[in-house]
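SEVERITY: medium
COMPONENT: batch folding queue
REPORTER: lab tech (J.R.)

DESCRIPTION
The queue accepted two submissions in a row. Attaching both inputs and their returned C-alpha cells so the on-call engineer can compare them side by side.

ATTACHMENT 1
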Amino acid sequence: MARLHLFDLDGTLLHGSSAPVEISRQLGLAAEAVALDEAIGAGLIGPPEYATQVHALWADLTEAHVEAAFTSAPWLSGIEDVWTRIRRNGDYCAVVSLSPSFFVERLTGWGAHAAYGSRFPAVPFTEPVDPAGLLSSVAKVRIADRLCEEFGVGRTDCVAYGDSMSDRDLFQVVPVSVAVNADQHLTGLATHSYVGRDLRDAYELVCAAR
C-alpha cells in the first residue's frame, strides 16, 4: 500500500523560521513578524488575527519580495531528494501549512504532489484577507482526509512531519509521525523525533520503521 507523507512548513521544512518571517525580512520587518509568530504560538492571538496583522505588514509586498524570500529561506537540506525518493517508491508527498498559499504552493515545483496554505489575496494586495480561507490545526486533518481520498490511501497509510502544536491534531490521527526540531509538547505525541538540518535523516527514521 502506498503511503502519504504530510509535511508542515514553518519550523519543519524551514529551520528555525517561518514563511511570514522570511517574507517580512524582505521588507525590513522581520522583528515584527517574529513577534506575531510568538504571539500565535503562545495562544495570545488566533489565525484570523495573525493573518490580518501580517497582511497589514505586507502592504508593500511584491512578487519579487516573495521570490526572494523563498529563494533565501533557511530550508532543510535534502527536501527535493526526499520527495524524489517518495515518488520513486510509489508514495505521495504533500505540504499542509498555515502560512500563505502564495508561498506554500511554490513547493510543488520541488516535487510535492500537493501544497496547501492559508488563502491570501493575490500579491500585491488590493483586497483584505478572507477569514474563511485561513487554515488551522483542525483544517490540516480535513485536508489530509481529502488528500487520502484523492490518492486512494487511508489515514493508516499517512506519515506526518511537524514541529509545533499546530500539528497536534494531525499527529493524533495518523499512525506514524516525526517531530522535526520540535517543542517538547509535540515530541511527546510523535512516534519518531529528529533534530537537525537534513530532511533525508528524518525520512530515514520512517523508512527504517516501515
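ATTACHMENT 2
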Amino acid sequence: MSIPPARRRQLRTWTPTGEDGRLRAGVTDADEGMLDLASNDYLSLCRHPAVIAAAHEELLRSGAGAAGSRLVSGTRPVHDQLETALSHWLGRERVLLFPSGFQANLAAVSALADRHTIVLADRLIHHSLLVGVQASGARLRRFAHNDLQALEHLLRQCRNDRPSAALLVITESLFSMEGTSPVLADLSALCREHGAKLLLDEAHALGVLGDAGRGLGFGMHDVTMISGTFGKSFGSGGAFLACDEALGEHLLQSSGAFRYTTALAPSLAAAALAALQLIQANPTWGAELVQRGETWRAQLQNAGWTRPIGTGPIVPLLVGDDQASLDLQGELELAGLLTVAIRPPTVPEGSARLRLVLHRTLPDETLDSLIQVLARTGSPR
C-alpha cells in the first residue's frame, strides 16, 4: 500500500499526567504533558471523581466485564437503570445500550432500512452510518452538507420516481470534523412532508447542545431514532439508541448488533449513569461551553484567521495542505498544546485542518497561547 508521507497515520501512546487532563507522549516522565485540545471529553467528566467512583464501585460489584450478551446472562441492574434514566431524560419510550457507537449506528440503520429503502444521507455523515447503509442493502443517495434545498430536491425526486418507496434520511446534530449543525426543525419538517423516517446521530451534541444538553433532537417527534454515545460528553464508553416502544422491541428481537455481542461493561454503564446525573444537575454546562466556542471563533477571526464554522466545542482551523497541517500540529505540541491534524480521506481533499476541541475545565489562558503560536508560525489564514 503506497500512502504519501503526509497522509500516513500512526499510533501514538498518550499517558495522563494528572487530574487536569494533560497528556504526555509515550510512557516516560520527561515532561508535564500537554493541554488536551484533541479528545472528545467536552464536559471534562472522564476524570471526574464521581464518575470514577461509580465505575470503581461497579467494577468491584460486577467484575471487569458482563461476560455474556444482554439476552443471555449479561444484563445487570445498572444497564436497566441507565436505559431508564436516559429514556426519561430524552423523552423517549425505549433506550437500548450498545458496546460502541459504531455498533449502535449499524443497528440503527439496519432497523430502519432494507433493500427496498432509499436512504438520503448528508454527505459528511460518520463512516459507521455508511457501513450500516451498505449492510442494509438500501439504495444510497447523498446530499450536500446541511443543504436542505438539495435534500428537498432528492425527496421530491424519490417520491416522483417511486411514490410508495420507504425513505430514510440520515444526518447528525453536530458533525465531528466540521463543528456544524443542520437546521433540524426545517429538516424534520421536510421528512414529515415526504413521509421519510429520520435517523439522527447525536453523538457529539448530547451533553452540550439543545435544552439542558439533551441534544438538538429533544422534543422533536419526527425524529424516528436517536443514536448517542458515552465516549464524548459522558466521559465513559459505549453507546445507545433511543426510539419509541415498538421500534425498541423490534431492535431487541431482530438486531444482531444488539443480540450477538457481549453487553456493555457494567463499570462503563455506571460511569455513564454518574455522568448523566452530573449533566442533569448542571444544566448550564453545555450553554457555557457553546459560549466559550463563540469566544474562540471570534478571537481567531480577530487574529487574522477565517472564522471557524459551526457552533459549539468543535472548532476547525482550516489549513488546507496536508503537510502544513502536520507542521502546525508539531509547533503547537512544542508549545504544550495537543491537537491533531485531520487530513483526507477523513475530510475532503484540500481541507486538512486542526480540529481544536474545547473542554469545560480548559484553562482560560489556553486561547492566548494558541494565538501566540499561530502568529509566530505565519501559517495560512
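NOTES FROM REPORTER
The first strand starts at residue 14 and ends at 16.
No errors were logged for either attachment.
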